[in-house]
Give the backbone structure.
Amino acid sequence: MYIGIDVGGTCTDAVLLDNGLVMATAKVPSSDNILTSLLKALDQIMKGVPAELIERVVFSTTLITNLIAEKKYDPVGLILIPGPGLSHAHYQYNTDTYIISGAIDYRGREIMPLRHEEIQNAVNNLSAKGYKKVAVVGKFSVRNNKHEKEVASRVKQYNPDWQVEMGHQVAGQLSFPRRVVSTMLTCATRDKYSFFVDSVNEALSRRGIKGTVYILKADGGTMPLSKVAGMPIETIFSGPAASTLGVQALIPPGETSVVVDIGGTTTDLALILSGQPLLSSRGARVYDQLTQVRALAVKSVPVGGDSVVERVGKEILLYSERLGAPYCLGGPMPTPTDALRVLGLTNLGNLDKACEAMESIGQPLGMSCNDVASYVTNLVVDMIVQEIEMMFLQWQQEPAYRVWEVLQKRKERPRTVVGVGGGAAGFITQIAARIGCYPVIPPYARVANAIGAAVALPTLQVSLRADTEQGYYTVEEEGYQGKIDKDPFSEEDALLLANEWLRKRAENYGLETMIEKTEVTRKDVFTMVRNWVTTGRIYDICVQTSRGIMGHIGSRGGF
Amino acid sequence: MNSDKTGLIFFPAFDWAISPTHPEREERLLYTRDQIFEEGVMDLPQIKEYAPRLATLHDIARTHFCVPRVQSQVTEAHLIAAGSTLQLGDSIINKEIKNGFALVRPPGHHAMRVVHGNRGFCSINNEAILVEYLRRRHGIKKIAIVDSDAHHGDGTQDIFYHDPDVLFISFHQDGRTIFPGTGFTHELGGPGAYARTLNVPLPPGTTDDTFMYVVDNLVLPVVKEFQPEIIINSAGQDNHYTDPLGSMRFTARAYADFTKKLKPHLAVLEGGYAIESALPYVNLAIILALAGADYSYVMEPDYWPGRFKESPDRISNVHRMVDQLLETWEKRDQVDLQKIFGTGKFYQRKKSIYYDTDYIEEDQLEKVRLCPDCPGYIVIESRAERGYREPVRIFAVSIPFQACNSCQSEAYDLYEEFKRKTERSFDYLYLQDKSTDTCISYDKKKQKEWITEG
């Protein structure tokens, strides 16, 4: 039996799955002390089920995302080593930032040395301002981490109690500005994350659950909870990923669908293309900050059932804020939920109150209660439909850097619009009609996120870059940098090495069974020619375990 | 929608090479990729990245006579490089972006009107294909192309030699010292487009100061006076001081300064084979200059200001050449064209063209109809020898988009006449009518004709 739990800001949702069937669900309000709500949710779904039968528990959470949104974390100081390139005026991160000398180039060669007095000066200043957390990030540190390591060790030497994070360990892909943000957020949220892990372990041990415990990542894969401690920001955005996987499990395999998750103040959109959730081509955006976190392509639209509706002059406008519950539920302002109530598309709240809300807007414009309600509903539908079209357009226009990628560009249209979340029922039919699809509200849509967590599978990936001329290789996901000890080092050797690292990673995470089926997602070979002589090769290889979910709800087979 | 964004198509073709060790190989834009990705250029608010697209075979046939047919000369990579240029052209005209950079390979500025094979690493001319496309699709007439590659842009020059509405300026390393061995000051365009082609051959070793002198005193004033609707820069980067094929001494900073001054609507990557020491820095600097961002922090690791000095003698030679070219430009409408080009119904020139990549030797006779009402149609007879193989002979007629009715009908008659001829003096016949966007090719042996219309 499997358990999926989604710890959100307002609700904690849980499901119990057995043999592809949903055995029990729970939805409890999240308490300040997450332990209480976890226990409550567990008790609801495990009534009469012995704890020994639970093989696996998967968590997803938006706690880290919420912390970032509310800026509830200790300040993190920055020591950056950007070297030549973009103007340093670009590096503004709303915190004390020290830019020091030193530079590494794209091949990992040092082109400008560090200056120790600058490091010391930065540390002294950070210390004087009371910082205890520091992120050290260099441009091209993923090609050579020497500078970052040296600066970090000096910081530690002066202040052994400080928490220091290095860019190359957090974010292995190219993009210095995103690496800075990712490293800073990792540094900021690490201890909060450990607190979450402790609460989860405490709850499970109190209920005697001994199955393996995983946490969902933003890309829809899972990791054993105990091992992720290093990478809290990989779990940001696992909330939307959970709903998307949930829908994937609740619809037939191979379907192309738009997932519309309408909540109180935001609507999350995601795409499932031929049965596979679409991954974002760059890293996730966390509020206004761009990170390098691999994530499903989820778009948040600032509109939901509780958004405020107001008349301004002769116009009816929709605002992204929430000022409380909908009017029909005792709130202060008219909302789209009131409109749905008037039109009979929801049973929530009091009909008279809802009519009152709509009339208050419509009267000066000479519009009836019904007219206003359809107008407001249309506003919401317009906004969401527009964003859906944009998402498809963006997906079709994603850059391609290889001939085969350009040639295989697909145009695909969705067949269904799948609604989950509280506000979905009222809007989904109209949204689907507008883009020519079938509306679907699957059973258990209310807890799709918890189902998504329950069916998610571990993923492992290794991106290997080997430069035979320089004689070293790097493993992006590990921040590892090592010597190539074979000469000549062929394409097959590189592939073997990548697979060996994948195996090593799998062992570290206790996921040996996962690497039976792996796939090569990238294999670029670059011949280096200098002065008309071939001097080496660069291999850029990515291997991963296959993506997917355990199975589809109701299909019975396999899980 | 009036946008102030800079459009970028980055197409490094990581799976395409002329051959594994050729300068035009997968590795060429690898370090440029590393640099612009690591800098986070694609995330800058001023930058809008576009996906590449494929040009159609007709887009190519509108510009080139590919022998025997378009599909036999181009690979998919060529169609993508050309298509990317068209994509940015569309976006500029639609005002989605204010300018753009097609950071694509393979390059194109050595590809001439007739294409028997690959020369100077080029098969089809991306800029020329764009020009004909902009005219057909968007009604653009006057276009300036400034070629900043170290090699003379002989392909682009060939295609627009008789076109009075295309200004072509190329500054490059002196043709006596580098491929393709042309691009001298006396190459000034045909009788209908005199001084619309300007060549500035620079001595090997030329530095930033002289580069800027040419830009400030010739390129900018001439372009300004020409009043083009669109400015295109063939942004070759082999004038860089580290280039292995060129012998010039320009820096990344100077390329950016030039871009900032010229303000091209579109820059299209051409050559540049110092793939580590130049390209990452030059490309980054050009992108930032186009985007109006600060590029003063971009610097090659081994450069220091004042590193290169030039002899005063050579500087004054260049200054003299610039003065003369400017005078030619200013007096372009006062010269006696009959004295230079002669009289008669046609002006003709013979060309001998070498395809260095494919080892083809082409002999070409190009005739342009001297017409008082339009730039006149062009007739080409060409014969290409490739080793011991049977030579290929073609006959081609090109009608410009500005053609008058009588030139158009004369050209069609000529094509039909050659098609009727029974003796096989030519293997393939072509007709390109840019005024109606019709391209016809005829295979004498198979007696088969293909027509495409845009």
